[in-house]
Structures are given as C-alpha cells and as structure tokens.
Here is the input.
Amino acid sequence: MLFDAINYWAVLVTGILSLVLGFLWMAVIWAKPYQKHMYGKNYQVQLNVSKAAKIQSFVIYIFVSFVTSIAFAICLELWKAGGQAFAYDGERLSNAFWFTMLLAAGYTLPFTVGKKVWQFKSWLVVAVDTSYEIVRFTMLLLVFWFWT
Here is the structure.
C-alpha cells in the first residue's frame, strides 16, 4: 500500500525542520527586508496579534508541514518506482534532485508569484518565499533519500 512505504519518523523530523527553516529564513536571515515588503513600512505595528492567533497559526503550519512531508514522500516513492517504466534511473540522487525542483516549481511558483500578481507584493517577497520552498524541498529530498 502507498502509505506503508512512508517513513513517518522522517515526516515528523521534516515537519519540525520545516518550522525551524521557516523561522530562520523569514524571521532571521531575511527578516527586515521580507517583513517590510510583505507587510509594509509599519509592519511592526501591524504584527501585533494575539497569543491565541499565533498559536493557531503555528498549529496550522505544523499540520500543513506534515501533510507536505507525507505528500513529498509519496511523490518520491512513486518517482523512484516509475524509473523502470519511464526509462530513467530512479535510484540516482541527481535525478531525484531535478524531480524535486520540478515539484517545487510546479507547486510553489503559482502561490509565490501569485503574491506579486494578485496581492501586488514585491518581487523580493516572491524571491524569499520561492527560495525558502526550494531549500525546504531540497531538505525534504535529502532526509527522505538518506533515511530509508
């Protein structure tokens, strides 16, 4: 069965690592330019949200991180298995990396570029969000690839 092939310990670890990476990426490495371009010049005033709202956001994000990890693990297993059927080497990390970039582009770009197109955010916001997802998907690949 499809869900039997998933390493749920790796899902737990990558879900938590996604939170850590997200915090580092958005609140440490790119904090000032990202928050200024994402929320506007008065971003420090606008970010005064209740503790309950912060907890709710954290719970929702960790749930979504686990779902993303499970979905990625399934996609990676399907990709490995499809190698024989579609004449590519599903056992090569370099091929898995390009598959991961394809997934990241296909599922990330519509949302990140949408911030520019529909929410009129800056290209800096798009670049920071997209680069976070690329690093996160690469992290998922490495954890699931080597933790088998």
